[in-house]
Amino acid sequence: MMCMPCYTIPIRTHVITEQDNIIELAKRYTEGVVEPGDIIAIAESVVAITQKRAILPEEVQPGLLARFLCRFPGKHGSLATPPAMELAIREVGTVRILLGCVAAALGRLIGRRGFFYLVAGRELAFIDDIAGTMWPYERHIILGPHKPDKIVAAIKEDTGAEVVIADVNDIKCVDILAATSPASVKIAKEALVDNPFGNDDQQTPIVVIKVKKEAQDRAA
């Protein structure tokens, strides 16, 4: 997991649930590992789980609009099932969803993608439909974290480290939902590209990015 001039230390945790406080966990599990100038990176799905934003599909009763609109993202889209689309509607409201659909349709006419989330809300892009995250949430729909900026600020206050909440996959896509500084965004995007988070037996939803001074200077 080398990414010069940074390297990552995946932190193994217990199975995190909605009974946990992510701010307290970040401090406890990184104590003795994180130093000033380092970055604590936390997987966005785990933050959402601690906020009680993991929902079983069978607990959602989709309306007619959700059943209709879920046909359009494609079968591999995160809003491609009626329960996930229904939760998206509840998150931002019917008007923003419909405006997002209109924007997406116009975008297709000019060969551009991403207009749906630009209009309906970026937070909808972080909904994981049957997320495949660690047990016991492998069958849940995971909504994006609520107020992630406040979470990273609170963790920084407790630990003294920079903090990011990240959505990372195995095809080298890194999306930073919230960060305590612009420099930490740049460094985290580089350091997390190989996805050091582990959602299965690894149980490593927290990663400490050890940052050397030259990386801090380059990102500043």
Estimated radius of gyration: 18 Å
Write the element-wise H/E pattern from the N-terminal end onward. EEHEHEHHHHEHEEHEH
| Global geometry | globular
Report strand order across the widest sheet. Answer: 1-2-8-3-6-7
Q: What's the number of extended β-strand segments? A: 8
Low-confidence stretches: none
| Strand residues, percent | 15-25%
Biggest sheet overview:
6 strands, mixed
Distance between the termini: 23 Å
Mean pLDDT: 89
Assembly level: single chain
Question: Helix fraction?
Answer: 25-40%
Count of discrete alpha- or pi-helical segments spanning 4 or more residues? 9
How would the blueprint of this fold be written?
Elements: E1 2-3, E2 6-11, H1 22-30, E3 39-43, H2 44-50, E4 54-55, H3 64-69, H4 82-92, H5 94-109, H6 115-120, E5 141-142, H7 148-159, E6 162-168, E7 174-179, H8 182-191, E8 206-211, H9 213-219
Parallel strand pairs: 3-6
Antiparallel strand pairs: 1-2, 2-8, 3-8, 4-5, 6-7
Helix pairs in contact: 1-7, 4-5
List its salient traits.
220 residues; 38% helix; 9 helices; 8 strands; two-stranded antiparallel ribbon; alpha+beta
Summarize, please.
By secondary structure, the chain is α+β, with helices and mostly antiparallel strands. The protein contains 9 helices and 8 strands.
Descriptive report:
- A hairpin with a 5-residue loop joins strand 6 and strand 7.
- With 220 residues, this protein is α+β, with helices and mostly antiparallel strands.
- Helix content is 38%, strand content 16%.
- The protein is built from 9 helices and 8 strands.
- It starts with a strand and ends with a helix.
